Prior knowledge:
Chain A is α+β, with helices and mostly antiparallel strands. Helix content of chain A is 42%, strand content 19%.
Amino acid sequence: MSDLRELYQEVILDHNKRPRNFQKLEGANRVADGYNPLCGDQIRVYLFVEDHVIKDIAFHGSGCAISKASASMMTAIVKGKTTAEAEGLFETFHKMVTADLSAAPDPLVVGKLAAFAGVREFPVRVKCATLPWHTLHAALEGKEQIASTE
Amino acid sequence: MRPVTGMAALVMLPEVSMAFDVERIREDFPVLRQQVHGRPLVYLDNAATSQKPKLVVETMEQYYLTENSNVHRGIHLLSEQATEAFEGARGKVARFLNARDAREIIFVRGATEGINLVAHSFARPLLSVGDEILISEMEHHSNIVPWQMVCEETGAVLRVAPINDDGELRLDEYARLLGPRTRLVSMTHVSNALGTINPVQQVIKLAHERGVPVLIDGAQAAPHLPVDVRALDCDFYVCSGHKLFGPTGIGIVFGKAHHLEAMPPYQGGGDMILSVTFEKTIYNEAPIKFEAGTPHIAGAIGLGSAIDYVGSIGLDRIAAYEGELLAYATDAISAIPGLRIIGTAKEKASILSFVLDDVHAHDIGTILDQEGIAIRTGHHCAQPVLKRFGVPATARASLAFYNTRDEIDALVKAIHKVTEMFG
């Protein structure tokens, strides 16, 4: 059970149960869809970007606790950040969950996202955690196609 | 040793359980004797692939170590022996399915390739614009996509017979959809996502009354039920070796002899020809006509052993034991608050698909894995049927004859842990 608690930390369970920014965003100027064909997780990320700053963000869709909590915490942390800062967080987050330990996350940078470090012990769940970030990335790039973890 | 709870079960249900020594059977499956994450492995992912008895592994090892040679062409002793073993396996398959003749059995890679073979060599030449292929709403992607591909090529149309809320085929709707343009019915015998056993006898009879041939996908049925292709009178029947306690990479197509004789080859190459010149090639006869290239010889021989093994227990006894185990498991997990079983047909094989309120199937799968319990989570390569039930994914426990009531108890206990964590 101890390993499971590493994965399903209280903060993750909380964001799963009460996801933040879980809605459709009226007036969004960037939207992207993410899909994980392995488990059927679907997410849509809405952004309102102005002067390279993410002024507002929301998400919608269905998925497992890890993907939902990851999306919820992602929206909370990137709101108000510049697009470049958001992309930098994606990179740091990705390294953290894919066990690239050469880049130990700076707690000041990742904040609550550090809760996802436990995901690296569960390789099949890494894609669940990164799906929202891939989708955010696609929205920032303004890509038309559906973001995928594949 | 069998624990006391198991003894109680023996007393309650003496007819089947006493005759069926599951602990003895488990000894034939070394893979089951291991720990996963520090817990005894509880393997409940049999619909994805089954475990292999020692007999199968040893037969294949023996073949490679002492008999390995190519088939149908060598003049030397080893090749003769390999050919005899390979063709012997074909005979075992024919008897297993009660086919009239071993020449009605084609070896392929699996049920998927089997359906593709029938789509390519049987259906495609028959189809023109506006013709119809009829399937059901509960099909695996392997019994949807090949038909979509052949429809795209020919202008034919795919029709889908609906199911009811229990996951049973609506026979009235099916009969209505059998029309003057229907050229083929292709339907699963047992649903991999729901466990439903389809009334294939009636499905075939209704189709034949209208002169429509029928392919039955037996990938999930052959490991659990006695199959008699002559009694069914199906035109084609496909199954996969690896779900039938045999190796991966080998599967079976049964086809009625007159169909196979009339069908063009599936792939071109060696073995499937009688003579080749640059001007003209004469094809071999069925089934070799459909087996271009060196086949999976060891796989076929291994599958033959798997059939021997299953036969030594008896599919009637297997079906009876699994039916008992399924009833036990259904009662046990139904009692878990917030749990809903997807697929509640009256006639079911040992598959339990379920969802939990507010917990995604993937989270269930991860937590169960930590308890040593292997299940499948996701859409089970049957996205349309899950959509029908309004769920993106389910957790699926699928049982085999080597599973026990103790394992079901472990499953129930682990699901309770899931609900506690997410409660």
